[in-house]
Amino acid sequence: MFNRDYNENPFIVIWELTRACELKCLHCRAEAQYKRDPRELTYEQGKKLIDDIYEMDNPMLVFTGGDPLMRPDVFDIAKYAVDKGVRVSMTPSATPNVTKEAMEKARDVGLSRWAFSLDGHNAAIHDHFRGTNGSFDLTMNAINYLHELNMPIQINTVISRYNYDYLEEMAALIEKLDCVLWSVFFLVPTGRGQEKDMITPVEHEKTFIWLYELSKRVSFDIKTTAAQHYRRVVIQKKMREQKVGSDGREIRYKDALMNGTTGMIDGLGRAPKGVNDGNGFVFISHIGDVYPSGLLPVKAGNVKETPLAAIYRESEVFKNLRNPDAYKGKCGVCEFRHVCGGSRSRAYAMTGDYMESEPYCVYTPKAMREKKLSS
Q1: Where are the alpha helices (DSSP H) in 260-307?
Q2: CA angle, 24 as apex, 125 and 153 as ends, to 5°?
Q3: Are strands 301-302 and 181-186 parallel, antiparallel or unpaired?
Q4: Which of 51, 100, 218, 270 is 20 to 30 A from 75 via CA?
C-alpha cells in the first residue's frame, strides 16, 4: 500500500452503484433521479469490475450513488468484494432505506465503515441542504443504531455558504457522535452544485487553518475532499512548528515537499502521497463510465468495453493529471505542486480546463514571489 505507484494503481476507487436516490440535495454531483437507470452495471459486470479492481494492488473501494441502497443486490456485491479481500465502505443516503436490517446486513457482510452525510448541526440547516424534511432526524437515528452495532462511523460534510458560520458547532456534533472520521468536502460547482453556494478563496484558507488546529484537539481524524491545498497549509504549519527541532524533522518535511511523498493525505498518515483527481483516485459511474473523479466529468473510457487498469494507466486524461509539472498558471510552478496540485475538479468547473490553476487558492508560489522581486 505504501509503495503504491499512482501511475499504475489507484489508492482509492469510487463506484457509483446507481444514481437513484430519494433525496434532492442542493449540491448533488450526480443530479440523482428517483428511478434506477436500466443501463447500470449488472451484478455479473460488477463482479468482473471488482476482480479488476482487486488486481490493481487491491485499493480501497467505496460504494456511492445516488443511494447504493436503491440497488437490491448491493449486499451481494459487497459480499463478493469482501470475500475477495477488498476493503469496502459505503455512503448511503439518509432515507427510509436505512433500516436496522440494512445496517445489520452491512455489518454481517463485513463492510469496514459506514458513512453518512451531515451538512448542518441542526435539522433546519441540514434538511435545507439535503432538500428533504426529516433527513437530519433519520441520520441521527441511524448513527445511534450503528453505535449499537459497533460499526465505525464516518461523517461527510459539504462546506458551503449555508454552514460556513457554524463549523464550530459541526465539529462539536462530530465529537459528540463519537465518529472515527470527519470527511470535509469543499463544494465544486458541478451537477446541481452552484458557484453562488461556494465559500470564498479567503474563507477556504481560513477553514484550512481552523481544521489544522482542530485536528490537534479532537478524537476523530479529519480528511478533506476537493481541498488539495489543505495539504499545503498542513505542511507549512508543521514546518514552522518543527523549525527549531534538532532531530532532522524539518529536513524530512522539505524533502517530502519536493517529491510529494509526505506520508500524509490531508495531514494524516493515510496515503503514501497526496491523492488527486486521476492521480491515485478513479471514479466509475453507474453505467461504467470512468472519470478522474466524480467531480471532474471528463470521460476516459467505459469498463464494459475496456479494462479499468488500461483506462487508468493509459488514458491521456489520467496521464495528464498525473503530471503536476504540466499544470498551468501558478499551480505549475508552485513548490507544493507534487503534494497538492490544487483541485483539478474545481479548475475544470471554473475554467473548462482541468490543467488550469486551482482558482480558489490564495497562495502565491515562491517562484512567482521571487520573480516579482527581481523584476
Answers
A1: none
A2: 65
A3: unpaired
A4: 270
